[in-house]
Write a structure and sequence with these properties.
163 residues; alpha+beta; Aminopeptidase; 4 helices; 32% helix
Length: 163
């Protein structure tokens, strides 16, 4: 079951797990301080009107989440997947695709998903999901200001592609 939530209280335990996972893709000198800063930043998310939070539950347990915002690296307007995580025990079972497609469907328009070059599993996942969701109608971009790939698409059938 996918649910949009208004507060991040339910996400905190799985967010810590997520931070442990993504920390491998960054140079971090003080992991504990970095983790605490990230959790403090998470506390401020609900105050931002352009952030949207979704959780994915299975048998009453949160197994994943997605954060959507409008902080874009590649587009001038639209939506971005800001944070996305599926617990390792539930990966490669279709849960991530289900959550991603649900979130995309909530907001018609321009979309981007930015993925670090160091996170090859995530790049592979997003390229497959976006290619399937858009029936191949997406652009894979890079930019000097971000060491990664952007998967860019538009899911609003009433608009021209990347208007």
């Amino acid at each position: 079951m996918i649910t949009r939530i208004e507060t991040i209280d339910k996400i905190k335990p799985i967010f810590r797990e997520y931070l442990n996972y993504i920390s491998q893709f960054f140079e971090i000198n003080d992991r504990e301080s970095w983790r605490e800063n990230a959790l403090n930043h998470l506390q401020r998310y609900p105050d931002k009107k352009d952030w949207h939070f979704y959780i994915l539950e299975e048998s009453g347990s949160i197994i994943g989440f997605a954060f959507v915002n409008k902080h874009l690296r590649f587009n001038n307007n639209g939506f971005a997947v800001a944070e996305f995580y599926i617990r390792k025990t539930h990966q490669r079972q279709g849960y991530g695709r289900k959550l991603a497609e649900h979130v995309f469907a909530q907001f018609p328009g321009n979309w981007e998903v930015a993925v670090s070059l160091k996170n090859s599993a995530a790049r592979e996942f997003w390229e497959q999901v976006v290619a399937s969701y858009t029936q191949g109608k997406f652009i894979k971009k890079t930019t000097a200001s971000f060491s990664g790939n952007g998967f860019i698409f538009n899911n609003d059938q009433s608009l021209a592609f990347f208007s």
